[in-house]
Amino acid sequence: MADLDIVIRNGSIIDGTGAPAFTADIGIARDRIGRIGDLSAASATLAIDAAGKAVAPGFVDVHNHSDGWLLKTPQLLPKTRQGFTTEVIMADGISYAPVDEGTSAEWIFYMRSLNALLFEEYEGWRSVADYMDRLDGRNAQNAATHIPYANLRAKICGFGRQVPDDFQLRLIVEEVEKEMDAGAVGLSTGLDYIAQCFSTTDELVEVAAAMSAQRGLYVTHVRYKKGTLQGIREAVAIGERARAPVHISHMKGTTPEEIDTILDYVDRSARQEVDFSFDVYPYLPGSTMLNFLLPFEVWEAGPISAMSRLTDSHVRRQFDRELANTKLDQSHIAWLPGKENSRHLGKTLAAYIDEVGGAGSPADVLCDLLIEEHLAVLLVFHHGDDDLVHPFLAHDCYMMGTDGIYFPDGVVHPRMYGSAPRLLGPCVRDHGLFSIEAAVRKLSGYPAERFGLQQRGRIEEDCFADLVIFDPDTVADRATYEDPHQFPVGIEDVFVNGVAVIRQGEEVVVDDLPDPLPGRWLKYHR
Protein backbone atom coordinates (compact mmCIF):
# COMPACT_ATOMS: atom_id res chain seq x y z
CA MET A 1 0.00 0.00 0.00
CA ALA A 2 1.35 3.46 -0.94
CA ASP A 3 2.52 5.76 1.84
CA LEU A 4 0.90 8.79 0.19
CA ASP A 5 -1.78 9.51 -2.37
CA ILE A 6 0.36 12.01 -4.28
CA VAL A 7 3.98 13.07 -4.04
CA ILE A 8 5.30 16.16 -5.82
CA ARG A 9 9.07 15.88 -6.10
CA ASN A 10 11.86 18.41 -6.60
CA GLY A 11 9.67 21.49 -6.88
CA SER A 12 10.63 25.00 -5.85
CA ILE A 13 8.18 25.55 -3.01
CA ILE A 14 6.77 29.06 -2.67
CA ASP A 15 4.85 28.66 0.55
CA GLY A 16 2.49 31.66 0.39
CA THR A 17 4.04 33.59 3.28
CA GLY A 18 6.42 35.67 1.17
CA ALA A 19 9.44 33.71 2.43
CA PRO A 20 12.15 32.70 -0.07
CA ALA A 21 11.43 29.62 -2.17
CA PHE A 22 13.09 26.33 -1.22
CA THR A 23 13.40 22.95 -2.90
CA ALA A 24 11.63 20.00 -1.31
CA ASP A 25 9.08 17.27 -1.93
CA ILE A 26 5.42 17.51 -0.91
CA GLY A 27 3.34 14.50 0.09
CA ILE A 28 -0.45 14.64 -0.06
CA ALA A 29 -2.57 12.30 2.02
CA ARG A 30 -6.28 12.53 1.34
CA ASP A 31 -7.15 16.25 1.41
CA ARG A 32 -4.10 17.47 3.36
CA ILE A 33 -0.43 18.18 2.94
CA GLY A 34 0.93 15.27 4.94
CA ARG A 35 4.69 15.71 4.66
CA ILE A 36 7.25 18.20 3.33
CA GLY A 37 10.92 17.34 2.89
CA ASP A 38 12.97 14.58 1.30
CA LEU A 39 10.38 12.01 0.27
CA SER A 40 12.59 10.08 -2.14
CA ALA A 41 11.90 6.86 -0.24
CA ALA A 42 8.13 7.40 -0.01
CA SER A 43 5.72 5.58 -2.29
CA ALA A 44 2.64 7.24 -3.75
CA THR A 45 -0.27 6.43 -6.03
CA LEU A 46 0.69 9.41 -8.21
CA ALA A 47 4.20 10.87 -8.43
CA ILE A 48 4.85 14.19 -10.19
CA ASP A 49 8.31 15.48 -11.04
CA ALA A 50 8.19 19.26 -10.54
CA ALA A 51 11.88 19.92 -11.20
CA GLY A 52 12.26 23.40 -12.68
CA LYS A 53 8.70 24.29 -11.64
CA ALA A 54 7.25 26.29 -8.76
CA VAL A 55 4.75 24.77 -6.34
CA ALA A 56 2.44 27.30 -4.68
CA PRO A 57 -0.72 27.29 -2.56
CA GLY A 58 -3.94 27.43 -4.55
CA PHE A 59 -4.94 30.95 -5.49
CA VAL A 60 -7.85 32.82 -3.88
CA ASP A 61 -9.97 35.22 -5.93
CA VAL A 62 -11.50 37.64 -3.43
CA HIS A 63 -13.68 39.52 -5.94
CA ASN A 64 -15.51 37.89 -8.83
CA HIS A 65 -18.93 37.24 -10.32
CA SER A 66 -18.82 33.45 -10.33
CA ASP A 67 -21.91 32.97 -8.13
CA GLY A 68 -24.22 31.54 -10.77
CA TRP A 69 -21.56 29.70 -12.74
CA LEU A 70 -20.44 27.71 -9.70
CA LEU A 71 -24.03 26.50 -9.43
CA LYS A 72 -24.38 25.78 -13.15
CA THR A 73 -21.08 24.14 -14.11
CA PRO A 74 -18.92 21.56 -12.31
CA GLN A 75 -15.65 23.23 -13.29
CA LEU A 76 -15.21 26.90 -14.20
CA LEU A 77 -12.20 26.34 -16.43
CA PRO A 78 -11.22 29.96 -17.01
CA LYS A 79 -10.50 30.11 -13.28
CA THR A 80 -9.03 26.68 -12.51
CA ARG A 81 -6.74 26.94 -15.54
CA GLN A 82 -5.28 30.06 -13.87
CA GLY A 83 -4.72 28.24 -10.59
CA PHE A 84 -7.67 29.61 -8.63
CA THR A 85 -8.83 27.01 -6.12
CA THR A 86 -11.12 29.30 -4.09
CA GLU A 87 -13.69 31.92 -5.12
CA VAL A 88 -15.00 34.44 -2.58
CA ILE A 89 -18.43 35.16 -4.03
CA MET A 90 -21.43 37.50 -3.61
CA ALA A 91 -19.37 40.63 -4.28
CA ASP A 92 -20.54 44.23 -4.76
CA GLY A 93 -23.51 43.66 -2.47
CA ILE A 94 -25.49 41.90 -5.23
CA SER A 95 -26.19 38.20 -5.71
CA TYR A 96 -28.91 35.55 -5.67
CA ALA A 97 -29.35 35.42 -1.89
CA PRO A 98 -30.74 36.31 0.53
CA VAL A 99 -34.13 36.48 -1.15
CA ASP A 100 -37.76 35.83 -0.40
CA GLU A 101 -40.74 34.98 -2.57
CA GLY A 102 -41.04 38.59 -3.66
CA THR A 103 -37.41 39.31 -4.56
CA SER A 104 -36.00 36.04 -5.95
CA ALA A 105 -37.26 36.74 -9.48
CA GLU A 106 -36.08 40.36 -9.29
CA TRP A 107 -32.50 39.30 -8.62
CA ILE A 108 -32.40 36.62 -11.31
CA PHE A 109 -33.73 39.23 -13.75
CA TYR A 110 -31.20 41.87 -12.66
CA MET A 111 -28.17 39.54 -12.55
CA ARG A 112 -28.72 38.08 -16.03
CA SER A 113 -25.72 39.85 -17.58
CA LEU A 114 -23.41 39.06 -14.66
CA ASN A 115 -24.11 35.43 -13.87
CA ALA A 116 -26.60 34.05 -16.38
CA LEU A 117 -28.85 32.04 -14.08
CA LEU A 118 -32.30 31.57 -15.59
CA PHE A 119 -35.63 31.63 -13.77
CA GLU A 120 -36.00 27.87 -14.26
CA GLU A 121 -32.65 27.30 -12.53
CA TYR A 122 -33.85 28.77 -9.24
CA GLU A 123 -33.83 25.96 -6.67
CA GLY A 124 -35.79 27.59 -3.88
CA TRP A 125 -32.98 28.86 -1.67
CA ARG A 126 -33.70 31.75 0.67
CA SER A 127 -30.60 32.52 2.74
CA VAL A 128 -26.94 32.86 1.81
CA ALA A 129 -26.32 29.66 3.76
CA ASP A 130 -28.98 27.85 1.69
CA TYR A 131 -27.20 28.90 -1.49
CA MET A 132 -23.77 27.89 -0.23
CA ASP A 133 -25.04 24.50 0.90
CA ARG A 134 -25.94 23.82 -2.73
CA LEU A 135 -22.37 24.59 -3.85
CA ASP A 136 -20.67 22.29 -1.36
CA GLY A 137 -19.33 19.30 -3.29
CA ARG A 138 -20.93 20.50 -6.53
CA ASN A 139 -17.89 22.19 -8.08
CA ALA A 140 -14.17 21.72 -8.60
CA GLN A 141 -13.42 24.92 -6.66
CA ASN A 142 -13.90 25.95 -3.06
CA ALA A 143 -16.17 28.89 -2.34
CA ALA A 144 -16.47 31.36 0.52
CA THR A 145 -19.08 34.09 0.69
CA HIS A 146 -19.97 37.60 1.70
CA ILE A 147 -23.43 38.75 2.78
CA PRO A 148 -24.57 40.97 -0.13
CA TYR A 149 -26.17 44.09 1.30
CA ALA A 150 -28.46 45.05 -1.59
CA ASN A 151 -30.23 41.69 -1.39
CA LEU A 152 -30.69 42.09 2.33
CA ARG A 153 -31.89 45.69 2.14
CA ALA A 154 -34.32 44.96 -0.71
CA LYS A 155 -35.75 41.98 1.14
CA ILE A 156 -36.48 44.01 4.28
CA CYS A 157 -37.11 47.53 2.94
CA GLY A 158 -37.71 47.23 -0.80
CA PHE A 159 -35.57 48.65 -3.58
CA GLY A 160 -36.35 52.32 -3.00
CA ARG A 161 -34.86 55.34 -1.26
CA GLN A 162 -36.44 54.86 2.13
CA VAL A 163 -34.04 54.69 5.06
CA PRO A 164 -34.65 51.61 7.24
CA ASP A 165 -36.60 52.46 10.38
CA ASP A 166 -35.56 51.00 13.74
CA PHE A 167 -37.61 47.84 13.27
CA GLN A 168 -36.33 47.23 9.75
CA LEU A 169 -32.76 47.86 10.85
CA ARG A 170 -33.20 45.32 13.63
CA LEU A 171 -34.39 42.75 11.07
CA ILE A 172 -31.38 43.49 8.85
CA VAL A 173 -28.99 43.14 11.79
CA GLU A 174 -30.58 39.83 12.83
CA GLU A 175 -30.09 38.45 9.30
CA VAL A 176 -26.47 39.60 9.28
CA GLU A 177 -25.84 37.90 12.61
CA LYS A 178 -27.46 34.69 11.36
CA GLU A 179 -25.43 34.60 8.13
CA MET A 180 -22.21 35.39 9.97
CA ASP A 181 -22.94 32.54 12.38
CA ALA A 182 -23.38 30.27 9.34
CA GLY A 183 -19.90 31.11 8.03
CA ALA A 184 -19.94 34.29 5.91
CA VAL A 185 -16.62 36.14 5.70
CA GLY A 186 -18.16 39.60 5.92
CA LEU A 187 -20.57 42.14 4.47
CA SER A 188 -20.25 43.28 0.85
CA THR A 189 -21.63 46.52 -0.50
CA GLY A 190 -21.70 48.05 -3.97
CA LEU A 191 -22.76 51.61 -3.33
CA ASP A 192 -23.15 52.50 -7.01
CA TYR A 193 -25.55 49.59 -7.54
CA ILE A 194 -29.24 48.95 -7.10
CA ALA A 195 -30.93 49.40 -3.67
CA GLN A 196 -27.72 50.05 -1.72
CA CYS A 197 -27.06 53.22 -3.74
CA PHE A 198 -29.70 54.74 -1.45
CA SER A 199 -27.96 53.61 1.76
CA THR A 200 -26.81 56.24 4.23
CA THR A 201 -23.46 56.20 5.98
CA ASP A 202 -25.15 55.89 9.39
CA GLU A 203 -27.19 52.92 8.19
CA LEU A 204 -24.06 51.18 6.89
CA VAL A 205 -22.27 51.79 10.19
CA GLU A 206 -25.08 50.05 12.11
CA VAL A 207 -25.05 47.01 9.84
CA ALA A 208 -21.25 46.82 9.63
CA ALA A 209 -21.03 46.96 13.43
CA ALA A 210 -23.24 43.88 13.71
CA MET A 211 -21.00 42.10 11.23
CA SER A 212 -17.82 43.30 12.93
CA ALA A 213 -18.96 41.95 16.28
CA GLN A 214 -18.31 38.54 14.72
CA ARG A 215 -14.95 39.68 13.30
CA GLY A 216 -15.93 39.86 9.66
CA LEU A 217 -14.73 42.26 6.96
CA TYR A 218 -16.53 45.29 5.56
CA VAL A 219 -15.92 44.74 1.82
CA THR A 220 -17.04 47.58 -0.39
CA HIS A 221 -17.37 48.84 -3.93
CA VAL A 222 -17.35 52.45 -2.76
CA ARG A 223 -19.32 55.33 -4.26
CA TYR A 224 -16.94 55.59 -7.23
CA LYS A 225 -19.46 57.71 -9.13
CA LYS A 226 -18.90 60.47 -6.56
CA GLY A 227 -15.12 60.16 -6.75
CA THR A 228 -12.79 57.37 -5.66
CA LEU A 229 -11.08 59.23 -2.83
CA GLN A 230 -14.37 60.48 -1.38
CA GLY A 231 -15.72 56.93 -1.52
CA ILE A 232 -12.66 55.50 0.23
CA ARG A 233 -12.91 58.15 2.95
CA GLU A 234 -16.50 57.08 3.62
CA ALA A 235 -15.45 53.41 3.77
CA VAL A 236 -12.68 54.19 6.26
CA ALA A 237 -15.10 56.23 8.38
CA ILE A 238 -17.57 53.33 8.37
CA GLY A 239 -14.80 50.96 9.41
CA GLU A 240 -13.64 53.21 12.23
CA ARG A 241 -17.13 53.83 13.59
CA ALA A 242 -18.16 50.16 13.27
CA ARG A 243 -14.76 48.89 14.45
CA ALA A 244 -14.60 46.80 11.31
CA PRO A 245 -11.63 45.99 9.08
CA VAL A 246 -12.11 47.56 5.64
CA HIS A 247 -11.47 46.01 2.24
CA ILE A 248 -11.93 48.07 -0.93
CA SER A 249 -13.14 46.19 -4.01
CA HIS A 250 -11.42 46.78 -7.37
CA MET A 251 -9.56 49.91 -6.34
CA LYS A 252 -9.66 52.46 -9.14
CA GLY A 253 -7.62 55.37 -10.43
CA THR A 254 -7.38 56.77 -13.94
CA THR A 255 -4.30 59.01 -13.82
CA PRO A 256 -0.89 58.70 -12.13
CA GLU A 257 -1.70 61.76 -10.02
CA GLU A 258 -5.01 60.33 -8.81
CA ILE A 259 -3.42 56.99 -7.98
CA ASP A 260 -0.62 58.69 -6.02
CA THR A 261 -3.21 60.67 -4.05
CA ILE A 262 -5.24 57.54 -3.29
CA LEU A 263 -2.23 55.52 -2.14
CA ASP A 264 -0.98 58.44 -0.03
CA TYR A 265 -4.34 58.41 1.75
CA VAL A 266 -4.15 54.62 2.16
CA ASP A 267 -0.67 54.91 3.69
CA ARG A 268 -1.75 57.69 6.06
CA SER A 269 -4.76 55.62 7.13
CA ALA A 270 -2.51 52.61 7.78
CA ARG A 271 -0.24 54.75 9.97
CA GLN A 272 -3.34 55.68 11.96
CA GLU A 273 -3.94 51.94 12.48
CA VAL A 274 -6.88 51.62 10.10
CA ASP A 275 -7.20 47.91 9.28
CA PHE A 276 -7.22 48.22 5.50
CA SER A 277 -6.76 46.12 2.35
CA PHE A 278 -7.87 46.22 -1.26
CA ASP A 279 -8.06 44.17 -4.43
CA VAL A 280 -7.66 45.03 -8.08
CA TYR A 281 -7.11 43.10 -11.30
CA PRO A 282 -3.92 43.71 -13.33
CA TYR A 283 -5.69 45.64 -16.10
CA LEU A 284 -6.84 49.26 -16.16
CA PRO A 285 -10.06 48.94 -18.24
CA GLY A 286 -13.14 47.46 -16.61
CA SER A 287 -16.39 45.69 -17.39
CA THR A 288 -19.90 45.99 -16.06
CA MET A 289 -23.55 45.96 -17.04
CA LEU A 290 -24.81 48.67 -19.38
CA ASN A 291 -27.63 49.30 -16.92
CA PHE A 292 -25.00 50.40 -14.38
CA LEU A 293 -24.89 53.72 -16.26
CA LEU A 294 -28.61 54.41 -15.72
CA PRO A 295 -29.69 57.05 -13.17
CA PHE A 296 -30.38 55.64 -9.71
CA GLU A 297 -34.07 56.64 -9.76
CA VAL A 298 -34.75 53.96 -12.38
CA TRP A 299 -34.31 51.26 -9.71
CA GLU A 300 -36.68 52.57 -7.03
CA ALA A 301 -39.38 49.96 -7.68
CA GLY A 302 -36.99 47.12 -8.53
CA PRO A 303 -35.37 45.72 -11.68
CA ILE A 304 -38.48 44.36 -13.37
CA SER A 305 -40.34 47.66 -12.97
CA ALA A 306 -37.25 49.51 -14.23
CA MET A 307 -38.08 48.29 -17.72
CA SER A 308 -41.06 50.64 -17.94
CA ARG A 309 -38.97 53.58 -16.71
CA LEU A 310 -36.69 53.31 -19.73
CA THR A 311 -39.35 54.82 -21.99
CA ASP A 312 -39.49 57.97 -19.84
CA SER A 313 -38.02 61.00 -21.66
CA HIS A 314 -36.73 62.44 -18.38
CA VAL A 315 -34.79 59.25 -17.66
CA ARG A 316 -33.39 59.26 -21.17
CA ARG A 317 -32.18 62.85 -20.83
CA GLN A 318 -30.41 61.95 -17.58
CA PHE A 319 -28.91 58.90 -19.24
CA ASP A 320 -27.61 61.07 -22.10
CA ARG A 321 -25.77 63.22 -19.54
CA GLU A 322 -24.11 60.10 -18.10
CA LEU A 323 -23.18 58.84 -21.55
CA ALA A 324 -21.49 62.16 -22.30
CA ASN A 325 -18.82 61.09 -19.79
CA THR A 326 -18.47 57.60 -21.29
CA LYS A 327 -16.02 56.82 -24.09
CA LEU A 328 -18.52 55.18 -26.41
CA ASP A 329 -15.86 54.46 -29.03
CA GLN A 330 -13.79 52.54 -26.46
CA SER A 331 -16.56 50.47 -24.88
CA HIS A 332 -17.80 47.34 -26.60
CA ILE A 333 -20.84 45.12 -26.27
CA ALA A 334 -19.49 42.02 -24.55
CA TRP A 335 -22.61 39.90 -24.17
CA LEU A 336 -26.39 39.94 -24.49
CA PRO A 337 -28.88 37.07 -24.59
CA GLY A 338 -30.82 37.88 -27.77
CA LYS A 339 -29.96 35.99 -30.95
CA GLU A 340 -30.97 38.87 -33.20
CA ASN A 341 -28.60 41.28 -31.49
CA SER A 342 -25.74 38.79 -31.11
CA ARG A 343 -24.35 40.09 -34.42
CA HIS A 344 -23.39 43.23 -32.51
CA LEU A 345 -21.09 41.45 -30.04
CA GLY A 346 -17.68 43.08 -30.04
CA LYS A 347 -18.93 46.33 -31.57
CA THR A 348 -18.25 49.56 -29.76
CA LEU A 349 -21.23 51.47 -28.44
CA ALA A 350 -20.38 54.26 -30.86
CA ALA A 351 -20.49 51.87 -33.82
CA TYR A 352 -23.75 50.32 -32.60
CA ILE A 353 -25.36 53.74 -32.16
CA ASP A 354 -24.22 54.85 -35.61
CA GLU A 355 -25.60 51.67 -37.18
CA VAL A 356 -29.05 51.55 -35.60
CA GLY A 357 -29.56 55.00 -34.14
CA GLY A 358 -31.39 56.94 -36.80
CA ALA A 359 -32.48 60.29 -35.38
CA GLY A 360 -32.39 59.12 -31.77
CA SER A 361 -29.89 60.24 -29.14
CA PRO A 362 -27.35 57.74 -27.72
CA ALA A 363 -29.63 57.25 -24.70
CA ASP A 364 -32.61 56.54 -26.94
CA VAL A 365 -30.68 53.87 -28.82
CA LEU A 366 -29.24 52.22 -25.72
CA CYS A 367 -32.48 52.34 -23.72
CA ASP A 368 -34.19 50.62 -26.63
CA LEU A 369 -31.45 47.98 -26.59
CA LEU A 370 -31.88 47.46 -22.84
CA ILE A 371 -35.63 47.03 -23.32
CA GLU A 372 -35.08 44.49 -26.11
CA GLU A 373 -32.62 42.52 -23.99
CA HIS A 374 -34.52 42.82 -20.69
CA LEU A 375 -31.68 44.90 -19.17
CA ALA A 376 -29.11 42.17 -19.86
CA VAL A 377 -26.28 43.86 -21.75
CA LEU A 378 -22.67 43.50 -20.62
CA LEU A 379 -19.98 46.01 -21.57
CA VAL A 380 -16.20 45.95 -21.64
CA PHE A 381 -14.21 49.18 -21.56
CA HIS A 382 -10.81 49.01 -23.23
CA HIS A 383 -9.24 52.41 -22.86
CA GLY A 384 -6.20 53.39 -20.82
CA ASP A 385 -2.76 51.99 -20.08
CA ASP A 386 -2.57 48.83 -17.96
CA ASP A 387 0.75 50.03 -16.53
CA LEU A 388 -1.19 52.64 -14.54
CA VAL A 389 -2.38 49.95 -12.11
CA HIS A 390 1.17 48.86 -11.25
CA PRO A 391 1.43 51.08 -8.14
CA PHE A 392 -1.71 49.40 -6.79
CA LEU A 393 -0.34 45.92 -7.53
CA ALA A 394 2.95 46.66 -5.79
CA HIS A 395 1.32 48.02 -2.63
CA ASP A 396 1.50 45.98 0.59
CA CYS A 397 -2.29 46.18 1.08
CA TYR A 398 -3.03 44.66 -2.34
CA MET A 399 -4.38 41.18 -3.07
CA MET A 400 -5.92 39.63 -6.19
CA GLY A 401 -9.52 40.16 -7.18
CA THR A 402 -10.22 39.35 -10.84
CA ASP A 403 -13.73 40.87 -10.99
CA GLY A 404 -14.15 38.19 -13.65
CA ILE A 405 -17.44 37.97 -15.56
CA TYR A 406 -17.91 34.87 -17.71
CA PHE A 407 -19.97 34.14 -20.79
CA PRO A 408 -18.60 31.43 -23.11
CA ASP A 409 -20.34 33.06 -26.08
CA GLY A 410 -19.36 36.63 -25.21
CA VAL A 411 -16.45 38.96 -25.92
CA VAL A 412 -15.69 39.25 -22.22
CA HIS A 413 -12.91 41.07 -20.39
CA PRO A 414 -9.59 39.16 -20.56
CA ARG A 415 -9.26 39.39 -16.77
CA MET A 416 -11.54 36.33 -16.61
CA TYR A 417 -8.79 34.22 -18.19
CA GLY A 418 -5.54 36.04 -17.50
CA SER A 419 -5.36 37.79 -14.13
CA ALA A 420 -3.23 35.37 -12.09
CA PRO A 421 -0.79 34.44 -14.89
CA ARG A 422 -0.31 38.13 -15.70
CA LEU A 423 0.61 38.82 -12.07
CA LEU A 424 2.98 35.82 -11.88
CA GLY A 425 4.58 36.31 -15.28
CA PRO A 426 4.76 39.76 -16.89
CA CYS A 427 4.42 41.69 -13.62
CA VAL A 428 7.35 39.76 -12.10
CA ARG A 429 9.56 39.00 -15.12
CA ASP A 430 8.97 41.97 -17.40
CA HIS A 431 8.12 44.80 -15.03
CA GLY A 432 9.94 43.74 -11.85
CA LEU A 433 7.12 44.96 -9.63
CA PHE A 434 7.85 42.37 -6.94
CA SER A 435 9.40 38.96 -6.42
CA ILE A 436 7.68 35.74 -7.40
CA GLU A 437 7.31 34.98 -3.68
CA ALA A 438 5.50 38.29 -3.15
CA ALA A 439 3.24 37.63 -6.14
CA VAL A 440 2.25 34.22 -4.76
CA ARG A 441 1.52 35.76 -1.35
CA LYS A 442 -0.82 38.31 -2.97
CA LEU A 443 -2.62 35.41 -4.67
CA SER A 444 -2.79 32.98 -1.76
CA GLY A 445 -1.49 33.53 1.76
CA TYR A 446 -2.58 37.13 2.19
CA PRO A 447 -6.19 36.73 0.95
CA ALA A 448 -6.63 33.44 2.83
CA GLU A 449 -5.48 35.05 6.06
CA ARG A 450 -7.47 38.22 5.50
CA PHE A 451 -10.70 36.37 4.72
CA GLY A 452 -10.38 33.84 7.54
CA LEU A 453 -9.82 30.74 5.39
CA GLN A 454 -8.15 28.53 7.94
CA GLN A 455 -5.33 26.21 6.80
CA ARG A 456 -5.53 27.58 3.26
CA GLY A 457 -3.14 29.76 1.32
CA ARG A 458 0.03 28.21 2.78
CA ILE A 459 2.18 25.19 2.09
CA GLU A 460 2.63 23.69 5.53
CA GLU A 461 2.08 20.23 6.91
CA ASP A 462 -1.59 19.64 7.80
CA CYS A 463 -2.81 22.51 5.60
CA PHE A 464 -5.37 21.58 2.98
CA ALA A 465 -3.85 20.42 -0.29
CA ASP A 466 -4.93 23.28 -2.55
CA LEU A 467 -1.85 23.53 -4.78
CA VAL A 468 -0.68 24.97 -8.10
CA ILE A 469 2.35 23.83 -10.08
CA PHE A 470 3.54 26.41 -12.61
CA ASP A 471 6.57 27.30 -14.68
CA PRO A 472 7.88 30.68 -13.47
CA ASP A 473 9.88 31.14 -16.68
CA THR A 474 6.92 30.83 -19.05
CA VAL A 475 3.73 31.56 -17.10
CA ALA A 476 1.78 34.31 -18.86
CA ASP A 477 -1.69 35.40 -19.90
CA ARG A 478 -2.81 35.03 -23.52
CA ALA A 479 -6.34 36.47 -23.41
CA THR A 480 -6.94 39.73 -25.27
CA TYR A 481 -9.85 42.13 -25.61
CA GLU A 482 -10.43 40.88 -29.15
CA ASP A 483 -9.99 37.18 -28.30
CA PRO A 484 -10.55 36.73 -24.57
CA HIS A 485 -11.22 32.98 -24.47
CA GLN A 486 -7.56 31.98 -24.43
CA PHE A 487 -6.16 29.97 -21.56
CA PRO A 488 -2.81 30.99 -20.10
CA VAL A 489 0.49 29.19 -20.56
CA GLY A 490 2.67 27.86 -17.78
CA ILE A 491 0.01 26.64 -15.32
CA GLU A 492 0.71 22.90 -15.20
CA ASP A 493 -1.26 21.24 -12.39
CA VAL A 494 -3.96 22.36 -9.97
CA PHE A 495 -5.15 20.43 -6.91
CA VAL A 496 -8.23 21.20 -4.80
CA ASN A 497 -8.38 19.42 -1.45
CA GLY A 498 -5.90 16.85 -2.74
CA VAL A 499 -7.77 16.14 -5.99
CA ALA A 500 -6.21 17.01 -9.35
CA VAL A 501 -8.59 19.23 -11.34
CA ILE A 502 -5.96 20.34 -13.91
CA ARG A 503 -3.19 17.95 -15.03
CA GLN A 504 -0.39 18.91 -17.38
CA GLY A 505 -2.26 22.05 -18.36
CA GLU A 506 -5.50 20.27 -19.27
CA GLU A 507 -8.88 19.81 -17.61
CA VAL A 508 -9.49 16.64 -15.65
CA VAL A 509 -12.89 15.63 -17.01
CA VAL A 510 -15.71 15.56 -14.52
CA ASP A 511 -16.31 11.84 -15.02
CA ASP A 512 -12.80 11.24 -13.67
CA LEU A 513 -13.35 13.38 -10.58
CA PRO A 514 -14.77 11.99 -7.34
CA ASP A 515 -18.42 12.37 -6.42
CA PRO A 516 -19.01 14.70 -4.63
CA LEU A 517 -16.61 17.06 -6.38
CA PRO A 518 -13.69 18.39 -4.32
CA GLY A 519 -14.85 22.00 -3.91
CA ARG A 520 -16.15 22.92 -0.46
CA TRP A 521 -17.93 25.78 1.23
CA LEU A 522 -15.17 27.45 3.22
CA LYS A 523 -16.58 29.04 6.34
CA TYR A 524 -14.94 31.96 8.08
CA HIS A 525 -12.90 30.86 11.09
CA ARG A 526 -12.95 33.42 13.88
SSE topology sketch:
Blueprint: E1 4-13, E2 22-29, E3 32-37, E4 44-49, E5 54-57, E6 59-61, H1 67-72, H2 77-80, E7 84-89, H3 104-110, H4 112-115, H5 128-135, E8 142-148, H6 149-157, H7 166-182, E9 186-190, H8 201-212, E10 217-221, H9 228-242, E11 246-248, H10 256-271, E12 276-280, E13 287-289, H11 303-309, H12 313-323, E14 331-335, H13 349-356, H14 362-372, E15 378-381, H15 390-394, E16 398-400, H16 415-424, H17 426-430, H18 436-443, H19 445-450, E17 467-470, E18 491-496, E19 499-503, E20 506-507
Parallel strand pairs: 1-4, 1-5, 6-7, 7-8, 8-9, 9-10, 10-11, 11-12, 12-16
Antiparallel strand pairs: 1-2, 2-3, 5-17, 13-15, 14-15, 17-18, 18-19, 19-20
Helix pairs in contact: 6-7, 7-8, 8-9, 9-10, 12-14
What does this 3D model show about the protein?
This protein is of the alpha/beta class and about 525 residues long. The protein folds into 3 domains: about 5-50, Urease, subunit C, domain 1; about 60-285 and about 385-450, Alpha-Beta Barrel (TIM Barrel); about 295-380, no CATH class. About 30% of the residues lie in helices and about 20% in strands. The chain contains 19 helices and 20 strands. The strands form 3 sheets. Strands 1, 2, 3, 4, 5, 17, 18, 19 and 20 form a 9-stranded mixed β-sheet that branches. Strand 11, helix 10 and strand 12 (about 275-280) form a beta-alpha-beta unit. Helix 7 (about 165-180) packs parallel to helix 8. The longest helix is centred in the first third of the chain and has 17 residues, at about 165-180. It is globular. The two termini are about 40 Å apart.
